[in-house]
Each structure stands twice: as C-alpha cells, then as structure tokens.
C-alpha cells in the first residue's frame, strides 16, 4: 500500500481518537450498524458485550496502523484468521464488518472529511486485512476448534486454579503462545489463556486461571470447573517464544498467572541441548501468591542456564492468610526473594542491554514494567509482550 493511502486512514482514525470518548463511540456505533444491517451476525457475539466491546475494533485499528509493516502484520493477521474459524466466520462476514466500520467512521468524522479518496483508502486497507485473514483461514488444515475434557482442577490459592485438560486431538502450539478458550457455563464468551506447558503428543494442557473480581468468565472457571467438563479451544495465537539456536540471553518477567507462558517456554528449552542464559523474575503481591515456586525451583536446579528471582510487593503475607505453622522449607535453586514493585526491582539491575525481554501479566503491569525498563535504558525493540494491541 502506498504511503498516501496509509496516511489518509491514519488521519481519519486520529480525528476519531481526538474526540472525547471517540474510540468508545466508534466501537458502539460499529456494533449497532453491524447488528442492524446484518442481523445474522449478532449470533456470533456474546449476549453481554460491555467488557469486550472494543477488542475487535481495537485490533482492526492496530492492523490499519501497521499496513506499512507487512513483516509484522501478516503473521498477526494470519493467526487471527485461523483463530476466527472457531466462530464460523465466512468471507461475506468480512464485507459486513468492513462496511459497518466504514459507516461508523464516516458517522464519527462527518461527510466533509469522508471524501471519495478517503473512502477508497479505507476500502483498500480493509480489503488487505480481510484478505490476509481469509487467505490464512482457507489454507489451514488443522481443526477450527479443539474439544478438550477437564481431567483435573486444583485450587492452589483461594482465587487461582490449575486446570488440566485433555485434547481430543493434539494441538501444535509454540511454548509461550496463548489460546482462546470457551467454557460450557459461559457460551460465546471466549477468553485467552496461556498453556503452562509445552505442546505434547498426548494433547495435555495445563492452564493457570486467576479469578478477576467482577469478571464474567474467570470466576466461573475457578469456582465451577469440574472433571469431565468439555471446553472448546481456538487456534494458537501470539509471538512469544525462544527460537532454537539463539545466542541472545533472555530476561523474563511474569506476575501472577503470567508465569504460565514463561514456564512453558523454560520447559521447552529444558528439552534442548544448548540454551542461552535466562533470568526469570516471578512476581506476586504477597509471598503466598507465588504459587508455582516448587516447579520453578526444580527447573532452576536442573538447568544451570536458568536463574529465578522471586519478587513480592509486600514482605509479609496478609493477615487473612492461613499459616499452617509448619516451618517454611527453603527451596533450592532460587535466588533470595526481593521486595518491591517488580518493574522497579528489575530495572534497578541496569538496562539489560544484552537481553531479549518478555513481560507477562495484567495489562497495567506490562505497561508499567515496560516503561520502567525503557527508562533504565532497555531498547523498546528488545521488549516483547502479548497481545500486540
Ligand atoms: C494474551 C493473554 C493471555 C492470558 N492468559 C491468561 C492466563 O493464562 N490465565 C488467566 O487467568 N488469565 C489470562 N488472561 C486474562 C484472561 O483472558 C481474561 O481477560 C481474564 O480471565 C478476565 O476475564 P473475565 O471474563 O473474568 O473478566 P471480564 O468480564 O472480561 O472483565 C471484567 C473486568 O476485569 C478487568 N480485567 C480483565 N482482565 C484482567 C486482568 N488480567 N487483570 C485485571 N483486571 C482485568 C476488565 O477490564 C473488566 O473491567 C490472558 C489475557 C491475555 C490478553
Ligand atoms: C476485519 C478483520 C477482523 C479483525 C482484525 C478481527 C479481530 C478480532 C479480535 C482481535 C478479536 C478479539 C479476540 C478474539 O476473541 O479472537 C475479535 C473478536 C471477535 N471477532 Fe473479529 N476480527 C475481524 C473480523 C471479524 C469478522 C468478519 C467477524 C464475523 C462477524 C468477527 C467476529 C468476531 C467475534 C464474534 C469476536 C468475539 C467478540 C467478543 O468476544 O466479544 N470478526 N476479532
């Protein structure tokens, strides 16, 4: 695409974002046009859409903003296209989405700004995005969705469960990727979860799920999952992972269940003969939140290239935490626990200039840690996190 076309799309987007609550208005208007003009499409979406409303529109704007970087954009769109097969999306639906988005944008910026040239630029941009997603979906031979049976559900903290599922057919995902999951009690409410183990021929996946206060899906998973439940999983997504034969050292920072995709990568690396050095910082609010230290300790003992430093914001456990009174066993292989905000603690070590960095956790933890590291001198291009947008 030429730079004029891209500039026209960006300018219209900026005009929308410049308005107070512009992105929110755009998302609302987009869905209202889509569901009115194409009523059949409504059934793909969950009944309540408040929490998720901007995900689709956000992703399209992310893609439109990167039309000049096909190397990064096309793999991202290909993954999304393969994943969207789980909804049963057909090429005609892409036309519906594109038309509705154009009408919504036009409504936001006004007819004066929406010239023929601007409209043509949007047609081209959206056709490129749809084409990449449809093309990847057409080529894919793996299932549109995988059925998985829950074989174990263990509450490891009062708001965090480990769920192991058995896939009907094994899935090939790269350690570090994430998967869109639908549980039976929350139809059409797909949520991303990150496997905590590498892909295997047995088709076993372990997920770590934290119950988010007021959330639609995670509290239901943590409280109501039982052995035998049938889950549905979409195609793998995301770009985390450590390439084979890389010499570049790694810095991994994970908070809460953010440890899952990092642990999966370390387990995958443990099966290789040679690895670069990896320093993993694993964070939580209180010492009792560090639910997976036993496994990390075993990995650190067995793999000399791995250093694991636990970090907690508070020195002590909260008053309501039940302490069994048994003496705490020192876990071998781990560095001494540090106290402080994780981004601050890691950035205090210096710019980590020789490292590739991965950050995993809540959106606010990822952003804060990224800014702290950049302020300490880490280059933005060395830092990776998911999702991209
Ligand atoms: C790439 C990726 C991988 C993920 N992997 C995992 C995983 O392995 N395990 C896991 O437990 N979760 C994971 N999540 C988060 C998960 O997908 C859901 O967003 C989360 O479980 C909340 O869903 P919900 O339906 O309960 O909340 P919603 O009903 O979607 O949201 C309710 C409220 O909680 C807020 N909220 C949503 N997510 C979070 C969060 N993570 N922290 C704080 N507030 C939040 C929302 O902004 C909203 O205000 C991942 C997310 C991404 C983007
Ligand atoms: C035009 C290109 C498109 C892009 C870039 C895109 C991107 C996304 C993204 C990133 C999400 C959130 C993550 C997910 O659940 O997978 C999403 C959700 C979704 N998309 Fe798309 N999408 C596109 C087109 C379509 C089309 C044509 C349809 C079919 C009508 C569709 C249906 C959905 C549905 C049903 C959801 C779930 C929404 C929710 O959970 O609230 N998408 N899309």
From TrEMBL:
Cofactor(s) named in the record: FAD; heme b
Keywords: 2Fe-2S, Heme, Iron, Iron-sulfur, Metal-binding, NAD, NADP, Oxygen transport, Transport
SUPFAM superfamilies: Ferredoxin reductase-like, C-terminal NADP-linked domain, Globin-like, Riboflavin synthase domain-like
Span of domain Globin: 1-138
A GO molecular-function descriptor: 2 iron, 2 sulfur cluster binding
Enzyme class of the recorded protein, top EC level: oxidoreductase
One protein family per Pfam: Globin
Family as reported in the entry's similarity comment: Belongs to the globin family. In the C-terminal section; belongs to the flavoprotein pyridine nucleotide cytochrome reductase family.
The protein, known as: nitric oxide dioxygenase
């Amino acid at each position: 695409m030429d730079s004029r076309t891209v500039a026209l799309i960006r300018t219209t987007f900026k005009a929308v974002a410049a308005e107070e609550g512009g992105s929110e208005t755009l998302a609302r208007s987009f869905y209202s046009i889509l569901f009115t003009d194409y009523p059949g499409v409504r059934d793909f979406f969950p009944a309540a859409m408040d929490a998720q409303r901007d995900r689709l529109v956000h992703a399209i704007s992310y893609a439109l903003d990167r039309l000049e970087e096909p190397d990064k954009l096309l793999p991202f769109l290909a993954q999304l296209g393969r994943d969207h097969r789980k909804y049963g999306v057909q090429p005609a639906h892409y036309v519906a989405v594109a038309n509705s988005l154009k009408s919504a944008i036009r409504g936001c910026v006004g007819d004066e700004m929406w010239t023929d040239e601007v409209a043509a630029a949007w047609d081209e941009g959206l056709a490129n995005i749809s084409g990449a997603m449809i093309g990847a979906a057409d080529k894919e031979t793996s299932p549109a969705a995988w059925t998985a049976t829950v074989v174990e559900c263990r509450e490891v903290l009062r708001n965090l469960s480990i769920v192991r599922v058995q896939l009907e057919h094994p899935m090939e995902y790269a350690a570090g990727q994430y998967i869109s999951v639908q549980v039976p009690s929350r139809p059409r409410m797909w949520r991303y979860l990150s496997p905590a183990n590498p892909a295997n021929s047995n088709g076993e996946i372990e997920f770590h799920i934290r119950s988010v206060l007021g959330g639609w899906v995670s509290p239901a998973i943590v409280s109501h999952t039982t052995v035998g439940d049938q889950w549905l999983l979409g195609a793998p997504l995301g770009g985390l992972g450590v390439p084979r034969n890389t010499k570049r050292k790694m810095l991994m920072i994970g908070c809460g269940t953010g440890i899952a995709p990092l642990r999966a990568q370390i387990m995958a690396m443990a099966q290789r003969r040679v690895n670069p050095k990896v320093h993993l910082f694993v964070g939580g609010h209180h010492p009792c939140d560090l639910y997976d230290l036993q496994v990390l300790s075993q990995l650190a003992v067995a793999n000399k290239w791995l250093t694991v430093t636990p970090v907690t914001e508070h020195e002590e456990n909260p008053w309501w935490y039940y302490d069994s009174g048994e003496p705490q066993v020192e876990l071998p292989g781990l560095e001494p626990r540090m106290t402080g905000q994780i981004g601050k603690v890691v950035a205090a070590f210096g710019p980590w200039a020789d490292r590739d960095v991965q950050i995993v956790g809540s959106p606010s933890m990822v952003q804060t840690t990224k800014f702290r590291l950049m302020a300490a001198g880490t280059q933005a291009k060395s830092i990776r996190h998911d999702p991209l947008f």
